[in-house]
Amino acid sequence: MPKPSKTSQIATPKPVDEKITINLGCVDLGQIDLLVQEGFYANRTDMIRTAIRNQLSTHSEVVRQVVLRKTLVLGIQHYTEADLLAVQASGEKLQIRVLGLASIAPDVTPALALATIESLTVLGALHASPAVKAALMQRIR
């Protein structure tokens, strides 16, 4: 199955952080604020990021095994119009599985995405035009 071109991967801009919202109890939030106030962390975000990274590190072997078992691409996977036209010319369809960032270039049309992407599994973030996301909605797992 054709892979995205090396040049498209090089040209991919660095992804920005994704924003999430969490609900915390008052006691947990107070303890975070206390640690920030005492200088252990620069701010709430710094403490929460550190806690998340520590947990991910604790579970890194499980993550590694699941990535292998589910044949996920770990990191950034970028698809350009040229990549998808090559897939279309080969008569194949992609089953995209990414843990990280899956990016579909802005010039990819919904029709081309539908013709070339059989399924899309993203654990992390999907960057694509709203039209492409809408077209692929039934194929996103």
Account of the 3D structure:
This protein is α/β, with parallel strands linked by helices and 141 residues long. It has 2 domains: 33 residues; 79 residues, no CATH class. It contains 7 helices and 3 strands. Strands 1-2-3 form a 3-stranded parallel sheet, with helices on one face. It is elongated, with a radius of gyration of 19 Å. The two termini are 20 Å apart. About 4% of the residues have low confidence.
Brief characterization of the structure:
The chain is α/β, with parallel strands linked by helices.
Q: What keywords describe this structure?
A:
141 residues; alpha/beta; 2 domains; three-stranded parallel β-sheet; 3 strands; elongated
**In angstroms, what separates the terminal alpha carbons?**
20 Å
> Which structural class matches the secondary elements?
alpha/beta
**Fraction of residues in helices?**
40-55%
Approximate strand percentage:
15-25%
**Overall number of strands:** 3
Instruction: Name the helix and strand elements from N-terminus to C-terminus, one letter apiece.
Output: HHHHEHEHEH
